[in-house]
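Check this.
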Amino acid sequence: MVGIVIVSHSKQLALGVQELAAQMVQGKVAIAVAAGIEDAENPLGTDALKIYEAIASVFSDDGVLVLMDLGSAVMNAEMAVEFLPEAHQEKVYLCEAPLVEGAIAAAVAAAIGKNIQQVMAEARGALSAKATQLGIPNLTADVNSHIQPKTSAAYPSREIRLTVSNRLGLHARPAAQFVATAARFQSQIQVQNLTRNSSVVRGDSINQVTTLGVRQGHELLITATGVDADAALATLQSLFANNFGEDNTAVVSPPTIQQPVTPATHGELSGIAASPGVAIAPVIHYQPAPVTVTQYHVDDPEREWQRLQSAIHTAQQEIQTIFSQASLQIGDTEAAIFDAHLLFLEDPVLLETVQQRIMEHHLNAEAAWQAVVEEVASSYRTLEDAYLRERVEDVVDIGQRVLRLLAGNAASSLYLAEPAIIVATDLTPSDTAALDPRKVLGICTVSGSATSHSAIIARTLGIPAVLGVNPEVLRLEDGTLMGLDGESGKAWVEPEADILTTLETKREAWQTAKQEALTKAHQPAITRDGKQINILANIGSIADVQAAVAGGAEGVGLLRTEFLYLDRTTDPTEEEQLTVYQAIAEVLDNRPLIIRTLDVGGDKPLPYLRVGLHEANPFLGWRGIRFCLDHPELFKTQLRAILRASAEHNIKVMFPMIATVTEVRAAKAILGEVQTELRQAGIAFDENLPVGVMIEVPAAVAIADQLAAEVSFFSIGTNDLSQYVMAGDRNNPRVAYLADALHPAVLRMIQQTVQAAHTAGIWVGLCGELAADPSAAAILLGLGLDELSVNPQAIGIIKQAIAKLTVTQAEAIATTALQLESANDVRALVQ
């Protein structure tokens, strides 16, 4: 029999509801209460542990229905379910039905033996009888919709009119910022494009906001209704005033289809010049099979909805992984397009529509999802603005990802044994972000444009691309030689000798220009008044170190060792790790190599490492050094490999996520144990191996003077430090804007850390994304950083930025920045 749990802020209310429902069924149904908190003065509240215990007390294989009142009751109920074993979680249903009427209806349905779906349906429809008696029509017309617009008739509407100054209007990234900001407030936000006399749309829907077709110079009417309407409009207005953090200089018109001046030669293809450069290589086809969807009737629509929600959740995790990897490879600015992908999966209008189709029409999840995604895609295709029309590629990308997960298919992967030119119908943004520029020498597709997200990513990766060519290219056999010129927008199939010579000459000139830029990147970063700053690279593989050295890195400031533990079912052995560390160190040729010990948890889970209880907030949980100290054998294996590699190489070790002196001493004690074991075994290692710590937790900043007495160096991780200082998860689109390393609060943390390090006589570096921002170079130099560690692509840019400065200028800029009030103010200062 189905069990019932009543969750309320008021214990008295919950007990009354329990008694009423129990009387209706003569005690036949197990009904538990989780209400109030143990505080005599303030007894109102909810407790996740109490809810967990209540669920456990009435648990049945037939299912448990949890009814809640508002606010923390919902949040704590969700948390309580996560405490349960996975097998039990699937049988617990959180229901939005009214507490009193829902409990009575659910109890009666359970007592007569109805299943959990039927019990939940009865609870949701509990108000219909009362509504009919009172003559109120359609009260429960959409009881199955979990997501409703946030309205409040008790508050008057507020409105503002704003003119858009962004050079590309509300394209994906600023639209994502707008939606994420609107969703933070309780008020309902609505938007209308007055210039185009559009209909009014919801401000918390990424698709509705994007398809308004907002361009530079358009006037918008933004309306807010609710308790925090004024604050919502003020915050949105500041987004517009700061151009959503984008550079607003003139944009160069995108390349268009190149018309040959002379008659086309044999095998010549004309297309769109999307990414400059020349490639000559055999072709390889890439054509992931689309998921075929069959529509059918389902008897259990609630199960289909849950199946879709599970697929969406997994898709979100995949996109967050892509975002993290893309941030390292192409930088946060371009990687931010995946923020819009995440918001698409949270779009309340889209989710409501899909849910309605599943529930009302009993459609299977695949068919309902595909139909709604295609409707959204069609709305993009009909936009007048060509740039915004191209965002349909993102919609298709996300839609196919969820369909693939629903079908249980593995993700498509593009592995190249030898360098080649990719030929495809099209490449999605996530396809392109995963390409390896060392193997993918060029891209040639039938579809696409120069302003698509895929083209933008290709340019950032430095991969030549010609798009929009004749579909006949898809008939080429793999291995066919192709020449490709991404600047002219042409490609040649089996190019004739004269064409091949011309292309080779142009490729040599292109590579020479790149080499000249690299030569400058190989020079030290010295300010105009003679101060040198070390510029190192952040890497996550052996391949990365080769790119780093080729790009002018003076060493590796951060080796992320997590890659050794991925795509495995067991931990890497000591010998496996030793081989990798030695290989990386040999490429560096005595340049410094800082190896960060395993940093899992937060946004870096490892599936095979069983961490036990699911964490409600993994960023505040069992991660970094905390995990390693609790797994001493795993930790010692890694330390042994690092120590052995240090025997003949310039290696330093660094501990992540340090929050206390005790943690440092514990880690050093284990390191000491390993050193003793190696000495006893006669195995060589660097007896003076430098030990450092990551400064990425506010507590570490506060006790930096104490930590400095324990280690040889600091490395500031601004990606984590900014989100912890600002209490904003950088992977959550709704609050990610807070985790801005240019905020004066974060900059003051950096200043405090540098001062403590220098007072103690140790050096301090910075390895977060902030280090790769050339506009931040003056501030970091002015704050006294000794070294910066950046992604390999940014090395030359950062060195050039530093070469333009003097220390006096930088210190003045930094002093001013520390006194400003917001990250936008700081950004305006440095720009």
Observations:
- Residues 137-153, 249-264 have pLDDT under 50 and may be disordered.
- Residues 444 and 466 are 5 Å apart (CA to CA).
- The radius of gyration is 29 Å.
